[in-house]
Amino acid sequence: GGLVTTDLGHQMRGKGATAYLRIPFSVPVGAGFDTLKLRMLYDDGFVAFLNGVEVARRNAPPEPRWDSTATAEQSTTPAGSFEEIDISAGLGALVGGDNVLAIQGLNLSPGDGDFLILPELEATRRTELGWRQFTPATPGSANGGGFLGVVHEVDFDRPAGFYENPFAVTLGCTTPGATIRYTTDGTEPGHDHGATYQAALPVRGTTVLRAAAYKPGYYTKETATRTYLFLDQILAQNGAGLPTNWGNDWQMDSRVVAHPAYAGRIHDDLRSLPVVCIALDPAGFWGPSGIYTLTTGRGDEYERPCSAELFFPDGSQPGFQINCGIQIVGGASRSMTPKHGLGLTFKSRYGPPKLKYPFFENSDVEEFDFIALRANFNMSWVRTDNSGPLSNGNADGAERLHAIYVRDQWTKESQLAMGQISAHERFVHLYINGVYWGLYNPSERTDASFAASYFGGRKEEYDAIFSDPSTIARAHDGDKNAWLEMMRIAREGLSSAEAYARIRQYLDVANLADYMMLNFYCATVDWPWQNWNAARKREPGAQFRFFVWDAEYTLETPPWVPDDRTGVGAASGEADSPARLYHELRSNAEWRLLFAD
Questions:
Q1: E-assigned strands of 346-468?
Q2: Given CB 3.0 to 4.6 Å as the disulfide criterion, which of 270, 423, 532, 592 pairs with 444?
Q3: Over the Cα atoms of the chain, what is R_g?
Q4: How large is the average pLDDT for residues 153-174?
Q5: Is residue 25 within 8 Å of residue 121, measured between CB atoms?
Q6: What is the phi-psi region of residue 473: left when phi exceeds 0, alpha when psi lies from -120 to 50, beta otherwise?
């Protein structure tokens, strides 16, 4: 692939699995290195010698011979990525002048078509430049310039929240000599971006204030954000000053705002729930290349840095402000509605690697990698098309007539009430750069991190399987090895006691019974070919557990929905789903008794 120009294919393929390489290099006399690192691209193994002294090995037999092969396939390092090996213990073998790095490269077998050995040596020497702080830390590697210290975060003398009268907000920083810069357009301030703070700032209406402090030679850790909301202005929003290319109506719906039944209480309604405020560069959100414009895009390139705040209008609980990432989430809602689901991702490249806050009521989990801001797409006020399974030839917007927003949360809380683990949710009012964005339903995402929080261990130890209409089941985290073995056992039939014992090595049968009963009771329509998640710890005997997800088409009556969903699992489109497990288990007498009990 262009990594090297020396081709040993003719000499090695089908003939031998070992290649000897010698790389001469010189070192200045008196260099006085303190650390030495071997960086290797290899496939599949090697033994490395520095001037005849062994310094490193991977996938090599204890006593390599001329015809030795690698003991295992190279699978620990991604293709094209160097593995870095600290060989500082071998510095004594390094001499001033001529040196030789000798390598015995090992392929998995003489017939293996892949073979690669590409080494680099990296030596460093410590110098005395005084104390520095490094971001990120660089143990065992050459230091960058570093920083003399860290600038403290900017303090605001006014908290985020609702306000009725103009006021002034004072900013401060406890780092002597620091300069504060701020913005009010959602963008992050910088050394050369934003205004320089000099005196208290007047706030006369809805304002998103972002500020950071800077000092030459010092590291600015984070931007702080406070959102101040004025409801009279929000209810009169008409899109003035906002992008015109987005293609949607910015105006608050006058049929609601001015309706006699709501006008007198709408201020209280907007204060009745916790408030989440998102602040970010407008161009990155609803600009021509913004994620809210290119809603079907997925991956890191469709994630944007932002600030997220939570506050309680009644002051009953403390909130938070955190810098994180934001992305579009969901399936059909990405293209069929102007109100899209959003996801907050907590990663070190944006700020803290986790949100540490008791976000959900009645849950002991207080650390999160991700929070889904569900928009409630199906059976909602914004569902105006006529393509849903409940349209039945009705006029556009038929689902509006059945818009009840508690369906999904009710199913999750019911699964919890049945003694199972399920995602927690709550309701909030959401604002984007001070613009009211609607009622949202934040939820835990039932992935590997979720499973580790509730069942113990590390998220890296879990397989999390998500439903996907295009592939039925996909590994969101980990792999599908255990899942595929479980489904293989199920396909071979589960009527015997022996088969039932085998499937229980992979499946929590009581969890599946509760899970299926809940969906039967709700008469879930948009399922089971999609809208389910499962997780299992990657260890012998660990069992998959299922979690309800995206259950918006539930709790309706005929002719809108079928009232009997107990026959699921036989269709080909359901072959890789929890319903297929249920379908096969029905042939087992012990399972039927468990289900009846």
A1: 355-356, 367-368, 370-374, 428-432, 435-444, 462-468
A2: 423
A3: 30
A4: 97
A5: yes
A6: beta
pLDDT at 369: 96
The string over 358-382, giving b where at least 16 C-beta atoms fall within 10 Å of a residue's C-beta and e elsewhere, is ebbeeeeeeebbbbbbbbbbbbbbb
Q: In 290-330, where does DSSP find H-type helix? A: none
Structure tokens of 215? 């000092």
Instruction: Residue 131: name the closest of 36, 218, 221, 44 by CA.
Output: 218
Helix (H, G, I), strand (E, B) or coil at 161: strand
pLDDT at 464 over 90: yes
Task: Give start and end residues of each alpha helix (H) in 131-257.
Answer: 231-235, 254-257
Query: 3-7, 40-44, 455-459: which range is least confident on average?
Result: 3-7
Q: What pTM was estimated for this model as a whole?
A: 0.78
Q: Is the dihedral of CA 105, 111, 112, 115 positive or negative?
A: positive
Q: Which residues pair with 463 in a beta bridge?
A: 536
- In what order do the strands lie in the sheet containing 53-58? 18-27, 97-106, 45-50, 53-58
Q: For the segment 114-146, what is each residue's pLDDT rounded down to a tens digit?
A: 899 999 999 988 777 678 888 777 777 767 778
Determine the longest span between alpha carbons in the chain, in angstroms: 90
The Cα–Cα gap between 127 and 32 comes to 11
Alpha-carbon gap, residue 466 to 533, rounded angstroms: 5
Cα–Cα distance between 212 and 178 in angstroms, integer?
10
Give tens-digit pLDDT for 330-360.
888 888 778 899 999 999 999 999 999 999 9
Q: Are 400 and 384 in contact (CB under 8 A)?
A: yes
CA distance 33 to 87: 12
Task: Determine which helix (DSSP H) or strand (DSSP E) holds 57, and give its type and residue range.
Answer: strand 53-58
Amino acid at 586: R
Quickly state the pLDDT bin for 423 (edges 50, 70, 90).
Answer: very high
3-class SS at 234? helix
| Rounded Cα–Cα distance for residues 326 and 535 (Å) | 24
- Bridge partners of residue 533, in order along the sequence: 466, 547
Given pLDDT bands bounded at 50, 70 and 90, which one contains residue 388? low
Q: Which two tokens stand for residue 210?
A: 């972002």
